[in-house]
Amino acid sequence: MSSAPPIDPELQSKVAGPVNAVMEQAHRLDRADLAEKIESSLGHLVRPTPFRIVVVGEIKRGKSSLINGVLGVPDLLPVDADVCTATQTTVEFAPEPRCEVVLVDGSTVATKLADLGDWTSVLGQAANEGEIHSARIGLPNRLLQRGAVIVDTPGINGPVRGHTERTRASLTGADVALFVLDGDTELTAPELHFAEEIVATGLTVLFVATKRDLPGSDAVVDRDRQLLAARAPHLATTTVHSVSNTVKAAADRAAVAAATDADHRAARELFELSGYSPLLAMLVHRVECRDVARALVALRVAESGAGQLLGEIQTKKAALADSDPDAIKGRAERRIRRIHQRSKRARETMRQELKELHGRIDSAVRQDSEEIRDVCRDHIAAGRVRPELVRQEIESGLDALWTDTSNVLLGGVLTAVERSSALLDGEDLDGLLDDFRPTVALGDDRGPLQLPTASEPGSADQLLRYMPAIQAPFAVGNLLALLGATGAAGATALPIIGLPLVGAALLVRRSSDVRRTKHREATALVQYSLGQALNGPDGLRAQVSATTATTATELDELIARRVAERGRQITDEANRLLALWRDELDDRRATSRSLDEQARLIASARAHLTALTDGLGAALKGAP
Predict the structure, then answer these.
(1) pTM here?
(2) What are 135's strand-pairing partners?
(3) Confidence of residue 454 (pLDDT cuts 50, 70, 90)
(4) Cα 46 to Cα 549: distance, rounded to the nearest angstrom
(5) DSSP secondary structure letter of residue 539
(6) What pLDDT, in 10s, does the model give residues 382-395?
(7) CB-hemisphere CA count at 13 Å for 244?
(8) What pLDDT, on a 0 to 100 scale, did the predictor assign at position 455?
(9) Which residues contact 157 (CB under 8 A, 6 or more apart)?
(10) How far is CA 552 from CA 52, 351, 356, in A?
């Protein structure tokens, strides 16, 4: 088991003072969760526990290979291409190598290092039906003997459910997160998000990019540094180490097999090429400066907590300031003004919409009525002047016109209402017109189609009306003439024979007059019936005007009622708040003074924390 020396009492005293001050204020502000977080970081500082290095990263980034390289044992953790770590594996110091698996019930099972993959890989977990909690390895190693503990974790953002959560759990109590990146692929958005999540806990994140031996890896690492600077400025100064796990494994094997000075030099050259030298020096420095590193974590957690508390105090102070009489009255007046402004714009928009709708319908009605007249005129010109035919054409055209106009009017009115409603959306008037559904139904009150009042018949019409009564005498006169009547009779034959000629002339005239009369009647029927149906007191245009006017009136009244009602509610609410303010004036003043004092104490502690953080951070910059 790794051991660790007790923390420097002087450093502990320096850090504990301002951290405890922030923790106390967190309790006073009912932020027990924040106080617990600060207390946990401070407790980690004062407990002499090993320096915990947690290795994290996405699946198949080379985390296990990196741990093998750091510890100088190429075959310590399984790294085959088909092996994927499924559980946490902790490597700590032990005089002799050992390995055990911890089951979910707390019991342990000793195993060989060579068989560890059968337990901790995804396949091993499946074979053992999820009974494995973690694995522990003991190893004689100088870094571990100095007090380091290295933790391997499952890959984050992988296909197996729960792996990311297990990695998060492994970070509890960590001193540093060693984030492994792929030197052949640029930093991904999920990786950056997880790194920011770790930093938010106060923990230090160090990046290690693998595959240093591949062409183009240097360019990838440079791009990763640029992405960190652009996307996460607080990580911009973090070092990104570049290593080759493959070359380091070769160096470790060469060192073990070295028999001559040349062999040792070759192994040393491989080690330098692997890029592990600065990484190991940095880790050794961090372990030796564990007190400073832990103090920094505690200070960062407390400093972040202080910032949150100051923000909450500002919010509470703003709420108190927003509750004074002038603020209460001013807010109520502004809300009422906004309501009136919105309602005014909505009414103006609605009226303009209905006006434009009325104009569009009137133009359409005029055009459609001309089409009906044209059809009827074509019938009359073709000689089809029977009133029933003309009536059918007019009625058919008017039915279609009435229906089309009703549909257009309904759609236009609803559109006007919706656009008015959109202007009313917002504070206090949201959903005002949700239940307003205007009734738009044009009643077809045309009645039966009929001619205008006719004039009295003329003399020709009167004579022709009696033509059937005189047809018989005309026929007798014609017969006598044909039989050769007496002179006396002959003397009367010419007039008698002339009568049928007059009758025939009158009949021709009658036929022509009838056609003209029917033509006039049909034309008058078209003009009069269309005029009454469209322009009469109950005509289409009158009903359209009445509907749009009714809609505008109803909508105006509804908005006015709702605005007046909401204005009364806002006024009542303001009066209630004013009464509360008068009743609680002393308490509010006391609360304000208390918040001011808390803010002063937190700001002072935060300034102290910042100064200590800067000073201790400079101490860690001595890392190679």
Answers:
(1) 0.56
(2) 89, 101
(3) very low
(4) 81
(5) S
(6) 766 666 777 777 78
(7) 18
(8) 44
(9) 58, 59, 164, 190, 191, 194
(10) 75, 7, 13
